[in-house]
Design a protein that fits this description.
This protein is mostly helical and about 450 residues long. It has a single domain (about 15-439), classed as Up-down Bundle (Amino acid/polyamine transporter I), CATH 1.20.1740. It has 20 helices and 2 strands. A two-stranded parallel ribbon has the order 1-2. The longest helix has about 35 residues, at about 245-280.
């Protein structure tokens, strides 16, 4: 099953058409093998630094300083465990999570899981629309509704990828992620954070447990970190590497793919931590403890820091965040459609459908609630995503613990226990978040 199929579709995102298209020749040096396997982890990591994460990180930093930094770190570690299981599933079984759900669950259950996954992708795209539109507003002064309409044209970018290989897509996303990382590295330099406070905030403490709003923000950070469609996505795109289909070959692939996802998610954790640290160093330290909106954060950056470049850097990073997540949402949509329904459609059609369905609630929300509603709508999109997450984690844990599916790579008992503990924690956290926001 590790072979290259002819590429006849209009874009390089259909899972069956990119499987095994990135060759990993025998005899490569360790560094060259790492370079060959690098890429899928970065695509997945984009979901952990999209605009949906910004609101909770900014409010947590402005309100509690560095106090909730440990939550960012712990959420990242939970994500690393789940994405590692996805990587193992894809390489060991040669199947992605969506396809395995179709093969092993009754049709009504599989279809229900497909619908939930589609809702998650649309909710995530709503966040990308709002984030990109807000960045356009901050950079150009256009009204938010005009920025939302402008995001419809990112389909042209996807069309421009016609005939490109998967490595080119990974390179584009690398450029966008590098832009985000560079912008926040400069923000950290401008903000002069306290190294001692960063270390102290990275250690979990019970001091904030008595504050209900701190608990709410902590759960919000957790709920916005792990994206359900990322689990389907990762189990598929690790199969873009053409490896030797033996136990030793798969074991080696897992080792290198594990390094890839470790490096990529470490970068995502650092960027999320940087957002909170910048908010803590700039807003909390200056007494602005009520900043809970991305637009307010942008407005206050320059006056507080005295650096004229602080605002534009923030807006550029936000725009790159929205655009990079747009690519991964498109690829995840193709994975889910083919895996659950055995159907393929041209990538531009998938992009149009997803973006069209995302534009409607985003535009309606802004027109009804006003220009400053982006923050509330971003939080709502994360609540919708949170509600879908347990339905993706549960089959992942079941499949990766199955010897019939995974063979010798089935999760050992300790890893299964840890996985189910993460599932319980994420489920309880997300149920609480949905309950407090909706009921």
């Amino acid at each position: 099953m590790w072979f290259k199929l002819p590429t006849t579709a209009t874009a390089p995102f259909c899972p069956s058409e990119v499987r095994g298209t990135v060759a990993v020749p025998v005899g490569l040096s360790i560094l060259r093998k790492l370079a060959r396997f690098a890429g899928p982890g970065l695509i997945v990591a984009v979901g952990y630094m999209d605009p949906g994460n910004w609101a909770t990180d900014i409010e947590a930093g402005s309100r509690y300083g560095y106090g909730l930094l440990s939550v960012v770190v712990l959420s990242g570690l939970a994500a690393l465990l789940l994405q590692g299981l996805c990587m193992r599933l894809g390489i060991a079984s040669g199947q992605d999570l969506a396809r395995l759900c179709r093969l092993h669950y009754p049709k009504p259950i599989a279809r229900a899981l497909w619908l939930l996954a589609e809702v998650a992708i649309i909710a995530c795209d709503v966040a990308e629309v709002l984030g990109s539109a807000l960045a356009i507003k901050l950079l150009t002064g256009l009204p938010l509704w005009a920025g939302i309409i402008a995001t419809a044209f990112d389909t042209v970018i996807v069309l421009g990828l016609k005939g490109r290989g998967f490595r080119q897509v990974e390179a584009i996303i690398l450029g966008l992620v590098a832009t985000i990382g560079t912008c926040f590295a400069l923000q950290l330099i401008i903000s002069h954070p306290s190294g001692h406070d960063i270390l102290a905030g990275s250690i979990p403490t019970a001091a904030l447990l008595g504050d209900p709003h701190a608990i709410y923000l902590a759960i919000g950070i957790l709920g916005a970190t792990v994206m359900p469609h990322n689990l389907y996505l990762h189990s598929s795109i690790v199969q873009t590497r053409r490896i030797v289909a033996t136990e030793a070959g798969r074991r080696e692939a897992m080792r290198y793919a594990g390094i890839d996802i470790l490096g990529a998610l470490t970068l995502a954790i650092l960027i999320n931590a940087a957002i909170l640290i910048v908010a803590a160093a700039i807003f909390h330290a200056s007494g602005h403890t009520g900043v809970a909106d991305i637009e307010d954060a942008h407005r206050l950056l320059e006056p507080i820091t005295g650096a004229a470049i602080a605002g534009p850097l923030f807006a550029i990073a936000l725009f790159a965040s929205g655009q990079s997540a747009t690519f991964t949402g498109t690829i995840a949509g193709q994975v889910i459609l083919e895996g659950f329904l055995e159907r393929q459609i041209p990538c531009w059609q998938r992009r149009l459908i997803t973006r069209g369905l995302a534009l409607i609630p985003a535009l309606a929300g802004v027109l009804i609630l006003g220009e400053h509603s982006a923050g509330r709508l971003l939080v709502l999109s994360q609540v919708v995503l949170s509600a879908q997450l347990p339905f993706a984690i549960y089959p992942l844990l079941r499949f990766t613990g199955s010897g019939a599916i995974m063979g010798p790579f089935a999760s050992p008992p300790a890893l299964r226990v840890l996985g189910w503990l993460v599932f319980a924690g994420v489920t309880v956290a997300n149920v609480w978040l949905v309950w407090t926001q909706v009921v």
